[in-house]
Amino acid sequence: MPMLRLAAALLSGLLSGIGLALSGLLDPARVRGFLDVTGAWDPTLAFVLAGAVTASSLGTALARRLRGPFLADAFDWPTRTRIDRPLVLGAALFGIGWGLSGFCPGPAVAALSTGLRPVIVFVAAMLVGMAAHGALRRGLPSR
């Protein structure tokens, strides 16, 4: 079973990377054009977004009807549903970073395959930020 899980993860990652490349989400200029709704807006990524939301919604609806996942012991559904300050601040930081750089984490990791320096710098900065967040979280008292 572990080998099957690994093969499924590899296939999922490969399909996701191909999808990101074909959709144009690896091109920061195209992403910034989509996010620039007050300027030279490029609406083409709206179709990518609509397709992703549709596929995700259908997949979630199907998964909720299943007794359990095929390659895991149980589904890992989110348990927190409250919109709180950390969620809003995190979403704002994510949006600001995405708008400024044209990258979000998934496409940035996929874009590492291009070997371009801005992508490498972004992913390195992202990893440093993740490590800093982890260190800060460990140092804060739990709520």
> How many strands, what sense, and barrel or not for the largest sheet?
none
- How many extended strands? 0
Low-confidence regions? none
Gyration radius, in Å: 18 Å
Number of domains: 1
Strand composition percent: under 5%
Q: State the share of residues found in helices, binned by percent.
A: 55-70%
Distance between the termini: 38 Å
InterPro entries: DUF6691
Organism: Methylobacterium indicum
Transmembrane segments: 45-66, 87-110, 116-136
Pfam family, one: DUF6691
Q: What can you tell me about this protein's structure?
A:
It is a single chain. By secondary structure, the protein is an all-alpha fold. The chain contains six helices and no strands. Helix 2 packs across helix 4 (85-101) and helix 5 (105-111) packs across helix 6. The protein is globular, with a radius of gyration of 18 Å. The model has no long low-confidence stretch (mean pLDDT 89). It holds the Pfam family DUF6691. Keywords: Membrane, Transmembrane, Transmembrane helix. The chain crosses the membrane at residues 45-66, 87-110, 116-136. This is Membrane protein.
Essential attributes:
mainly alpha, transmembrane, globular, Membrane protein, transmembrane helix, membrane, single chain
Give the helices and strands, then pairings.
Elements: H1 2-23, H2 28-35, H3 44-65, H4 85-101, H5 105-111, H6 117-139
Helix pairs in contact: 2-4, 5-6
Pfam family, one: DUF6691
InterPro entries: DUF6691
Keywords: Membrane, Transmembrane, Transmembrane helix
